[in-house]
Every structure is written in structure tokens, then in C-alpha cells.
Write a structure and sequence with these properties.
Oligomer: single chain
CATH superfamily of the largest domain: Immunoglobulins
CATH topology of the largest domain: Immunoglobulin-like
CATH architecture of the largest domain: Sandwich
Distance between the termini: 144 Å
Largest sheet: 5 strands, antiparallel
Structural class: mainly beta
Radius of gyration: 53 Å
Strand content: over 45%
Amino acid sequence: MRFAKAILLLCCIWTSQSTVSAQILPPDFQCVTNDTLIWAPATNPCGPFTSLTIFASQDPAGPYSELTTITDESVTSFFHAGANNQTWYYYLVSEHACANPTSPPSDTLDNLIPLAGPIEYVTVIDGEVQISWEASPSPETSGYAISRNTTSGTTIIDTVDDGTSYTDTGAAPDEEPQTYFVTAVDLCGNESLVITPHTTIFLETTPPSSCDPTINLSFNAYDGWDEGVDRYEIYLNRDGGDYALLEAIPGNSTSFAFDDGNDGETICFYVEAVAAGTGFRSRSNISCQTVSIVQPIRDIYALGADVLTDGTTTIDWQWDPAAALTAAQLQAQAGTSGTQTTDLVLTFPLSAGNSFTDAMANAQGNAYTYRLRATDECGNTVLSNPSTTLFLSGQAPGDGFNYLNWEAYSHDFGQVLSYELVKVSGMGEQIVFTGSEVDLNYKDVVDLDSEEASGLCYYLRAEVRFTLPDGQEIEQELHSNTLCLEQQAKVYVPNVFAPEGVNSVFRPLVGFGTAQVYLMQIYDRWGGLVFESRNLSDGWNGRKHGDPMPQGIYLYYIELTQSDGTVLKLSGDVMLLR
């Protein structure tokens, strides 16, 4: 649409030339230097030059008065003798022998030097420096001079006739900071005052040592922005990948420590300053370092601790097989007792998955808690999470039930999928209970008429899933200690017996249970010891040293110790009949 309008307008101009004459061009007012005005005459083919008039004022808003009129077209300059070191403003009007003889005014120029536009930023791109600045507000400005600080001083490196940016291909921003100045110039050679220079960011990095992966970044503050630096953004890439923002640090910081490098990586950095207020950005040079370090030990994950049938334990764990370890220890704690430390033998190359049997453990009486501790070549030490064995406890109060209970399994990375309570008797093993992680007790019925009732053993079996921080999942079957419970023995003692009758021997009858220790003593009414037996099957036949004892009342004392340590003590009297 704009193009069509332009064609229509052009056609109208052509068709109306016979009645309307085009406006003539003004002179090209170029500059003022040392109170001398310089211009180039305008070319107007409609008619010859007749005169050029100079108008002047000391106020840019006017009024302007005629300073002089020049009738010689070859004259292209004029010295204002009355300027008297004061500020003046000028414009030119030319006359030609045309239908419209008077040109419009030229640009209005002053006798001051041109004003420079401030530098917006200097930034390093691909080893070169790009400079950007605002355009000069002075109409006489014909270009810009770009200067850089060098070892021999501030040197003009180039000029720009058109545009407000420049790329310095001869700079060395990878070696040191580069400082730049931009001045505005006119065709008379007048140059603006030097305004605030800007300096690039020069980034340096120190390589990590074999035992310290830290790469230290240091750089000079960006200099030139009136409102200063809002922040510095740290960018990095690994092994030639894409650059990504690592972290933003305050605008008053000029250093940063990076400690997340891996052995063999080449890591490159650059810093980007962000201006407060304007948001302009300036990038530093790129600095790279190759990480060559001893692979540190970072994490050890203790998995399940398992109880074997003999009360010893095994503990499984995982660590980084690439770690340069010099020592490892297993820390074991039984219940609330002190910690015992065992040095582990390291076999290289290391394995990610490991297991150790603690032959010194006795996990039948206490839960055992384990931790792994490892030290690498640089002295870094890492302690694993704790791992505790399952522990089963219970009671047999003599009411025909065995009461079993256990604490909830606790592990930083483990979750119980299921519990199984296994009963062990002379008839073998039997799963008597299956539950989830919230089930922590069970009451088992005991058949008191069964020979098995005197001593039953139990252990807990748990299926546990371990989910490690790297997402790896491992399942283990863990076992508790073995707990044996014995119902209190039922002891029946007769109150009369007849050596020559049916009940010829006096001894207690045990309903169930096994006596580990047994003692029976018989006393006469004066307290004399008549008989003693330490075998449950050996009773008193009513004699002392082979001689029959007379009919009468005798006293007995019976002490029976069960296999679980329970001690039963019975005393009373019995009638001997003849």
C-alpha cells in the first residue's frame, strides 16, 4: 500500500511540473571550526546560484539575524569575526534563479565541538571485542573515532563513518582487560571530549590440584556503566557441550569457586556482567581447565544387615569402584554398647557391591548397628548411613501363648515390603504370620499337651527394597535373631506314697518342659537329710542308706531350672505309708 501511494505521488509530481515548481535544495552545512563555517554548495538544476545567506543567533531557539550574504558560488567558508569566543548557532539559506528561488534552511550547527554518545557496552565475542555506543546528538557529527589503551598509550585504532558499533579484531581480550574510548568527529576534524571509557572483563582460572577439584575463577570488575553492575552470571560447558548458566553472583563480587568437576573433564567458563538499570551485558573471554584429580570417595550406601543362624551377621554396601581408597573400616555397635571397629581388606579393582561377615557378632542377644567408613588418597573421609539388624523379642508367661514383638525396620533408603514370622520346632519350620511394615507383634497359641510346647523358637524374615539416591533399586531378604521361648513347666508333687503299694516312689511329675538343672531333697521332721537326687527320673523309695524309713511326715525341697533359665522352687511335705 505504501509502495502504491509512492507511485501515485510520483505520478502527480510529474504531471504537475508545468504548474508547480519543486523546492530547491539548501547548502550542505558541514561544520564550524575556529569560528569558520564550512559548507558545500547545493546543486539545483532549475537555475543558477545567485546568493547564500548566513543567519546567526546566540540562542538555539532564536531569533536569528542575517550575518552576511555571499554571492560568489565558489566561496564555501566564512569566518565569523565577531564570535568573540561565545557560543553561536548558524543556519544557511541559498538563492537560485528558479521559480521557487529560496531554499529551506540548512541544518542548524553551533560553533562547539560535537557531543559524543555514551558507550553502551564492550563485550568479548569469539576472541574479538565488540563496542556499542549511542549516536551523537550533534547534527554535524560525521563519524566516530575508536581508541584503545595500549602499551604505548591511548591509540586511535579505527574510525566509523556510519553506524554505532564496531568490532576490534586486533584486540587481545584473552590476555588482559581492554579499555576503549569513543569520540564523535565532524568533517572539520573537530572531535568531542573523551567520555567515560569502558573496560572488558578479563577472566582467569586456576587449575585444580590432584586432591582438590576446585577451579577458582577471578576477574576484574566491568568498568564504565554509570549505575554499576547489577550481577555477574557464570556460564560453563563440559567437554565442548553447550554453555549453561551455572550461578549468578552479586555485582560487587569478582571471584567464584567451582568444585563440581570430574576427573578428565575439560570445563570452560565465561562471565557475563549485567548492567544495573539498562540491562546491557558484557561477556568476558573464555577460560578453560582440564580436571585431573584423584577420584574422591563421595558416598557409601550401607544396605541390609542380616543375622545368620549362628548369631553372626553380614552387612552389604555399595560405593564408587573408581574411588582411590586407602583404607576402610566397619563400625559395629551391639545394642547401646560402645562401637567396635574392624579394618577391612581392600581388593583392587574395587567392586561396586560388597559384603562382609562379622564373625565376632552375637546378634542373638542384641540388635547390631553398622556403618562403613572409607578414606581416599587425599584424606577425604566418608561415613555411610547406619544399618541395623532385625531384632525379635518375646515372652512366654505361661498362659498358653507365646508373645512375639519387634521394632519397625528403620533404614535411610530401605522400605519393608513384608514380614514373615517363622516358628521352628522339632517338626521343622512353619510360617505362622505374614504382615506388612505396620505389623509389629504376634501372639502364637501353644499346645500345652504337645511335647513341642516346652521349647519353641522363632525368627523374623523381612523382604526389604532399598532405593539409592541414584535411583538404583535393590531387594534383600533379611533375618532377625532366633528367639526360643519355653512355657513354664507344670509340676505335680504327690502328697502321699507307699513304698510297698502302687505309688512306691516319690518324685515330681513335670507336665512339659525340660529341666536343665534339677535338685530334690528329702528331710525328716528333725531336719536331717534323708535323700537327694539330681536326676528327674530318680525318685525316693522311702529308704535311707538302704534301710526303710518309718511311716510319717517328711519334708521335700525341689528346684528345677528350665532351658530358658526359668527357675522353679517347690517345697512341702509328703506322707510315707507302710
